[in-house]
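Reply to dn_fold:

You asked what the input looked like. This is it:
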Amino acid sequence: MADPFIFINTYAIQPDMLEAYKQRFQRTAKVVEDNEPRMLYFACHVNESGTEATTVQIHADADNMAFHLQLVGDHIEAARDFLDFSSMSIRIYGSPTDAMLEQMRGLVRGGVDVTVSRPVIAFDRFPVP
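and this is what came back:
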């Protein structure tokens, strides 16, 4: 059984762009829901001041994360209108390929702190569609 792949990224929301960003994220979430049956959890969390957002994704496996990056690449590009990627951080819990890490860095145009934590001891009870 493949390990679940957990992706968490945090970024600043441009001033006065919270509502526009939430609308854009809703459209992205619909694309993901309709096209990624192996996405187990996909959510945007916003801090109380509305200045920072965190995306939390739980994929059935790393292959689904690779598919996700292809599926939403255009949506990530469009998010530049609403987000400040200069302070972005990415945390990965799983086993990404080197190609996947390179693709992530390319989508956000480098300079992003990416932390990878590979599983050492684990079990899961996720039902995989």
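Residues 77 and 116 are 23 Å apart (CA to CA).
Hope that clears it up.
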